[in-house]
Amino acid sequence: MLKSTYIHIPGVGKTVEQKIWASGIRSWEEFLEKQDLVSISPARKEKILEGIRHSSERLEANDCCYFSKCLPSSEHWRAYPFFSDSVAFVDIETTGLSSDRDYITVVGIYDGKEAKTYVRGINLDEIMEEFSKYKLLVSFNGARFDLPFIKSEYPDLEFSQLHIDLMYPLRRIGYSGGLKHIEKVLGISRSEDTEGLSGFDAVRLWKQYEKGNRAALDTLLNYNKEDIVNLKTIIELTYPKMVEKALGSCNR
Question: C-alpha distances in angstroms, 183 versus 90, 105, 191, 226?
C-alpha cells in the first residue's frame, strides 16, 4: 500500500490521491508509465513525479523516519509490509490509567519471532536500548496510552519511527471495541490462564506480585505476551481489508 500512496508528497491531498487511484493507477511504477491518464495540472504532476523519485530512494534506504514524518499518523499502517522485518509489537501494563499518578510495571515487545518482557525493578530500563532497534512500532491504543506513558517515565526516549496504532485502521474496516473483543471476533483464542483477564486484573496481579506472589507475575507476563503476539495475528488477518477499504473509497 505504501507504493500506492501519494498523500505524503507536499501539495498532494486525499482528493488527488483518489483521483490517481480512480484512473486505474495503483503503484508509483504505474504512475510513471501512465501519468497521462490522470487529469491534474502539469505542475502538480511534476511534484508527484519528484515525490515518487525521492520516496523510492528513501524506501530503498529503509528510511522509516522519512515516512514517519511525511505520512499522516493515521496512515502509517500503509507502510507495514515494507518495514515488517523491523517491527516491535508493543504493549505495557501499569498500576493505573494516569501517567501522573501511576507507573509502568511491564513492557512487552514482540519482534514477530521472539517476545521480550521488561519488568519494573528487574530490567525495565533496558527498553531504552531495545526500542532503538526498530523502524516500526505496532500497538493498540498506543498513541493515547502506551507511548505517552513510556515517554513520561523515559523522556529521553525518542519515538521517531513509524507507529501503527491498530485501533484506528481497525475501526475503519468495522472492528470496534477493545482488543479482547476484536480478538474474539477474529477467532483468536487466549490461554486458559489468561482467558477473561483485563487491564484491571493486570493491576491486581502486580499488587499480588509485590506481596511476594511470583505466580502472579508469571500470569501477568503471559497475559502481556499474548497481547503483543496477538497484535501480529490481528494485523496479518486484517491488513488486506485495510488496503481494500482505502483503495475502494475512490470508486464511491
Answer: 16, 24, 13, 11
